[in-house]
Amino acid sequence: MTQTASPDPQVLVPLTTPEEVDQFLQDYPLAAVFKAGTCHKTMQGFGVLETFLQNHELPVGFIRVVDWRPASNHVAQRTGITHQSPQFILFKQGEPQFEVNNWDITPEALSPVFESHVPARSGEGAVATEDNAEPYRRLMHAFLDGQLSEWAFQDQYVTMFRDDASLRSQREFELLSRLFGDPDAYHGGLHQLGAPQERGDLKARVQTLLNDLG
C-alpha cells in the first residue's frame, strides 16, 4: 500500500528577546523575520507569505511587536531598517537583503525575491498557522440564531476582523474577508459600509461562510 508523503514542516519560530533574534539568525544562514502588528494587515501579510512558504525552504522567525518590543527594537537597531508592522525582512548570513511592509506585502513583491534567493521545496510545506476562527463562528451563529440584528452583526464582525492580527493562512484570510471586504477601504467609519444586505442575502452568505470554514 502506497502512503502519501507528509508535507515538509515549516520552521516558524517565535522571537521574544534580542538574544533569540541573534540565535535564530545564527542558526539559519538564510532566514526571514516577520513582524506582526495589531490589526488585519498582519493577517493579510502573513497570508501572502504563507503561500510562498508552502513551496520554498525558508525558516521564519516572527515577532509580536507589542508583546516582544525589545526583540522588535533589536531587529531595527541591528539592520538600520525602520520598524513597521507587518514587516518582512529576508536575511542572508545575518545581513538584511530585502524588506517589504504593510499592504506592500503582496505576491508581486515576494515572487521575484523567493524565485531568486529562496530554494524550492522538494514537496509542499506544512505551515502551522494560528487558524482559530472560533470567535467568528460564535458571532455568526449568534446572528443566524436571531440574537443580533444585521447592523449589529456587521458592526461586531468588521470590528473583530479589523483588530485581528492572527498569523492566518491565505485561505482563511480570504474566507473571513469575504463578507464585508476590507474595512480600510471605507473612509469615515462603519456607517459608510452600506446596508449589510447590499451584497445579497446576508444570512445565506453567513451560512455559506460557516460551511466553507468547516
| Share of helical residues | 40-55%
Class by helix and strand content? alpha/beta
Q: Which strands sit side by side, in order, in the main sheet?
A: 2-4-3-5-6
Order of helices and strands: EEHEHEHEEHEHHHH
Largest sheet: 5 strands, mixed
Unreliable sequence segments: 1-6, 186-192
Distance between the termini: 30 Å
Count of alpha/pi helices: 8
What fraction of the residues are assigned to beta strands by DSSP? 5-15%
Gyration radius from CA atoms, angstroms:
19 Å
**Looking at the structure, what is the overall shape?**
elongated
- Average pLDDT figure: 87
Notable characteristics:
single chain, 214 residues, alpha/beta, five-stranded mixed beta sheet, two-stranded parallel ribbon, 8 helices, 42% helix, elongated, disordered N terminus
Q: If you had to describe this structure to a student in words, what would you say it looks like?
A:
The chain has 214 residues and is of the alpha/beta class. 42% of the residues lie in helices and 15% in strands. The chain is built from eight helices and seven strands. The strands form two sheets. A five-stranded mixed sheet has the order 2-4-3-5-6, sandwiched between helices. Strand 5 and strand 6 form a beta hairpin. Helix 1 crosses helix 3, helix 2 runs antiparallel to helix 7 and helix 5 packs antiparallel against helix 8.
